[in-house]
Amino acid sequence: MLALTSIWTTILLAAAVALGPMAIDMYLPALPQIGADFNAGTDQVQFTLSIYLIGFALAQLVCGPLADRFGRKPVMIGGMLLFALASIGCALASNIESLQLFRFLQALGGSAGPVLGRAVVRDVYTPREAAKILALLAGMMALAPAVAPTLGGFIVATMDWHWIFIVMAVYALVMVAVIAFGIPEPLRPENRQPFRFCHLMRNYRRISTDMTFIGYTLTSAAIYGGLFAFLSGSAFVLINVLGVAPEHFGLYTAITAGGYLLGNMASIRLAKRYLPDQILLYGLATTLTAGATMALLAYHNIYSPWAVVLPQALFMAGTGMVLPQTMAGALANHPTMAGSASALLGFVQMAAAAAAGALVGILHDGTPLVMATIIAICAGLGLIGYLFLVQRYPAPGFEAQSAGSN
Q1: pTM for the full model?
Q2: Of 86, 270, 371, 395, which sits most exposed with the smallest number of CB within 10 A?
Q3: How far apart are CA 287 and CA 285, in angstroms?
Q4: What is the pLDDT of residue 73?
């Protein structure tokens, strides 16, 4: 097996963590076709995304504590096996209701990757080091939203949307083998936590009353909301409203993923000169600028794929700077219960994402304006979270005001 600090371990971990997000990105080009095949409205089809996010959020609350008790590997392997079975169920779905059910089950399994990926990084590295590794991990994961929609669009154009879920099932089974035989168990025996309800509630109460955790988590959740507002509405806006062909949809989303990758690379480079909270502020300013630009263009009836994609690419660049810092900051005070802290962080993120995505589906008016406005609002909420919480309760060693002494 590989050493936990090996770059190859980080690459394999990124591939495992990408499974859950891939289940969102790959089937986006198929949303209009799914609606047509099942004679379902935009809100019903969009709910297959929202219910995935709801399941993803809820499952993490159990997945994290289970991993704190039994270790990261067995929980991750079990989750991916469930993901594979549910993906096959999605492929065989005969109506929109059964697809929604299997998407929920798919999310229960898919949640294991991201929540335990963050926990593994916290198991192995210090908080400051974790911010850099999470940025590297996120940079590698940016390949998923770059490649997945393009692959999904190709499958929709050449075969059928059902095959998207078959590909997901195969990917999950490959990752089961990779985790089982390639990555050692990172959780030390002395850090294992009892899996008892009272102990679980005590841990969650301790984490959820930590103001540092609250600040970084709410800031992260707001930006997640903006990200998923785009994911939820982009297929309908770009394909149905702006006339982008399904097979070309992935090319546009690849541009936004490229922005995310650039943001992560900038985060890694800036970490050599700046503290995490300084990088976080730069990223939040970038997301707000991008969201406001997209909303203003839509408000002035400037309707073009580029009026959506280019501001979103800038938003994603800011997101690539924000998320590693907020994830590391939220976990900084909880090294012995990183699984539970990561689970609660993921729950709040996905709850915000589900809410933003549902709003886009419910309020969609046949223009990019609703989606763009929600993205801008989420970016503004992220900056408010930073100014009123993160600045007052920074993680140890993260605070921007210490820059002059370093």
Answers
A1: 0.75
A2: 270
A3: 6
A4: 85
